[in-house]
Design goal:
With about 280 residues, this protein is α/β, with parallel strands linked by helices. The chain has nine helices and twelve strands. It has helices at about 20-30, 45-55, 80-85, 105-115, 130-140, 155-170, 230-240, 245-260, 270-275, and strands spanning about 1-5, 35-40, 60-65, 80, 90-95, 100, 125, 145-150, 170-175, 190-195, 220, 240-245. The longest helix has 17 residues, at about 245-260. It starts with a strand and ends with a helix. Bound molecules: NADPH dihydro-nicotinamide-adenine-dinucleotide phosphate (NDP).
Length: about 280
């Protein structure tokens, strides 16, 4: 979990090279914000105490990652709209005495995507149905996508995301089995890869997608931020597609989180450069 605190406490923690810490602290420095963002490991059994501690110390908020994204909800006072649909939280914001859970995974993705294409009325193919894919799918639907086809290895998880979309949003969602090489249907506008295939250290792994089916009118986005240029994105560029990398998603989540906590719009380029300096 990453906690965000005004300067009211002092901590002795080994400093880890955490990408989120690096990019958010870089934004604080760049904008002269006298805030700190630190990384703290919290075991599942200690989650309730950690959240109570954050309340007691007046921390302005925190991020939480796996395995806390669902369990933390029991310790909060309310949820934002998309977090309630997704059923998971990665950003907690203090509002007076209340702790509100938000989910910025998908919102960061959509913000990054919008620098290239507006999802409204678009036809989308989404690979994956895990936590990241679920968040991305919900935010794409809330951003007005017309159709989302979810392709996933396990049918059960894929269908669960499709059911969630059809039940809770206006998008038309359907499941497509992903067995063997998947050809992206012509007429698709946006192709999103949100599985963990190709994530460091397995950087040579390639999702089983027929890259010949990618056409230059498609935008191809990858959720993987390490490496920023995945094999899939390189193949998409070679096919003439516009691309959006996973660093954009990570950076925009940070921008949204800092805005929630401090009210300040921070420079995304400063944050992106901080990540690149880590040589991801
Ligand atoms: P989950 O474990 O929840 O889901 C993993 C997904 O990958 C499932 O859909 C799973 O399919 C699929 N998958 C795993 N291995 C394979 C394989 N060999 N072939 C096909 N499908 C496979 O992970 P998350 O959703 O939390 O994370 C997914 C990725 O998104 C990670 O790489 C993570 O780094 C990235 N991410 C990036 C963020 C960013 O800011 N850039 C933010 C959050 C996540 P199945 O259901 O069949 O098991």
């Amino acid at each position: 979990m990453n906690f965000l605190l005004p300067l009211t406490g002092s901590f002795a923690q080994p400093a880890a090279e955490n990408p989120t810490v690096a990019m958010i602290e870089a934004a604080f420095r760049h904008h002269g914000l006298d805030w700190r963002y630190i990384n703290v490991e919290v075991a599942p059994d200690d989650l309730a105490d950690a959240v109570r501690g954050a309340r007691a110390m007046g921390w302005r908020g925190f991020n939480c990652s796996i395995p806390h994204k669902v369990a933390v909800i029991d310790h909060l006072d309310g949820l934002g709209k998309s977090a309630a649909i997704i059923g998971a939280v990665n950003t907690i914001v203090r509002d007076g005495d209340r702790l509100i859970g938000e989910n910025t995974d998908g919102r960061g993705f959509v913000a990054a995507l919008k620098s290239v294409v507006d999802p409204a009325d678009k036809s989308v193919v989404l690979f994956g149905a895990g936590g990241a894919a679920r968040a991305v799918a919900v935010e794409m639907a809330l951003a007005g996508a017309a159709r989302i086809t979810v392709a996933n290895r396990s049918a059960g998880r894929g269908q669960a995301v499709v059911d969630l979309l059809n039940d809770r949003t206006d998008v038309h969602a359907s499941y497509a089995p992903w067995e063997g090489t998947f050809s992206v249907p012509s007429g698709s506008d946006i192709v999103i890869h949100a599985t963990s295939v190709g994530l460091y250290p397995d950087v040579n792994a390639m999702p089983d997608i027929d890259t010949d089916s990618l056409t230059q009118d498609m935008v191809v986005a990858d959720g993987i931020h390490n490496p920023p240029l995945t094999r899939l994105l390189q193949a998409a560029k070679d096919r003439g597609c516009k691309t959006v990398d996973g660093l954009g998603m990570l950076v925009q989540q940070g921008v949204i989180g800092v805005k929630y906590w401090t009210g300040v719009d921070v420079d995304s380029q400063v944050m992106r450069q901080a990540l690149l300096n880590l040589e991801l």
